[in-house]
Amino acid sequence: MSDQEVDKGKRGFLMAATGVVGGVAAAATAVPFAGSMFPSERAKAAGAPVEADISSLAPGEMKIVEWRGKPVWIMSRTKEMLDGIQKNDGRVSDPKSEVPLQPDYAKNEYRSIKPEIVVLEGVCSHLGCSPQFKSVEAKSDMGQDWTGGFFCPCHGSKFDFAGRVFQGSPAPVNLRVPPYKFVGDAKIIIGDDSKGA
User: Fold this and answer.
1) Residue 62 falls within a domain, yes or no?
2) Do the Cβ atoms of 164 and 174 come closer than 8 Å?
3) Mean pLDDT for all residues in the chain
4) Is the pLDDT at 197 greater than 50, yes or no?
5) Domain range holding 115?
6) Which CATH number do you get for residue 118?
7) Is 196 a member of any domain?
8) Which pLDDT band, with edges at 50, 70 and 90, does 142 fall under?
9) How far apart are CA 13 and CA 81, in angstroms?
10) How confident is the model at residue 4, as a pLDDT?
11) Do residues 103 and 120 make contact, with C-beta atoms less than 8 angstroms apart?
12) CB-based contacts of 52: which residues, under 8 Å, 6+ apart?
């Protein structure tokens, strides 16, 4: 074996070893860099958009996600729930959602983009408590004319399934509708209602 053959072998080994070490170093640098592109928990709490998967949300069910440190309700409303909203127009304080507590695209009868899906901040507009879901069947507790909605046990405020406050409640205004948009039929982005590029 000549000296040149040994040198070629060493050279090839060193080149391969250097390439492997360089590749590992590049990957070790890229992973944290890529991870920094996703919002941190702190950024999410400060208001970064939150994605919610609603593909398994059945009619009548509600999903709760957190955005800006607040609970956000995403509910799939049934036909019975939607009919109840219409029946409440004369009983709620702001039936046409004149107080600007929702984006313009949710200033409608159901306070939502799609009638069957409502997105509401689950924070009472009175003192910031979190109301509870009360089904139509809760008439014994809520009154015989109850069509379902939300009840704040702290001071007795009542809201319908569109988040509209009932007259006589301590809460002065409807529940807030956060900015949101649909991404297909299976996902909602809360905190971002831009149309995109």
Assistant:
1) yes
2) yes
3) 86
4) no
5) 42-190
6) 2.102.10.10
7) no
8) confident
9) 72
10) 56
11) no
12) 63, 65, 72, 74, 187, 188, 189, 190
